[in-house]
Design goal:
The protein contains 4 helices and 5 strands, in the order ββααβαβαβ. A 5-stranded mixed β-sheet has the order 1-2-3-4-5, covered by helices on one side. 36% of the residues lie in helices and 28% in strands. The protein has one domain: Transcription Regulator spoIIAA, CATH 3.30.750.24. By secondary structure, the chain is α/β, with parallel strands linked by helices.
Length: 100
């Protein structure tokens, strides 16, 4: 059973909790522009799982930030997500991560 995806805004940070997969991305996708308004950091620390659908959504969210003139940084990226990004041979900086 898939764990629900929850998100909340904390100032310029979007915090994602739960699973980010094909079953849960739709709710955030539908609210992506409002969720990303003014966001400079996406906190992934509370995510338990991310699949390829989740990776695609994260790429889109980062791009939304770029389109609005923000540099969006991902924090708390798991080793599994980093491996998934490498398997897709994503260019450096496309999924900007910072370790805290």
């Amino acid at each position: 059973m898939t764990e629900a995806l929850e998100w909340r805004r904390e100032d310029e940070r979007l915090v994602l909790c739960g699973e980010l997969d094909q079953e849960t991305v739709v709710a955030l996708w539908e609210r992506r522009e409002a969720a990303m308004a003014g966001i400079e950091m996406i906190d992934l620390n509370a995510l338990s799982r991310v699949d390829t659908s989740g990776l695609a959504l994260l790429l889109h969210l980062v791009d939304l930030g770029r389109q609005s003139g923000k540099t969006v940084i991902l924090t708390g990226m798991s080793d599994n997500l980093a491996t998934l990004a490498k398997l897709y041979n994503l260019p450096d900086g496309l999924l900007p991560a910072r370790v805290f």
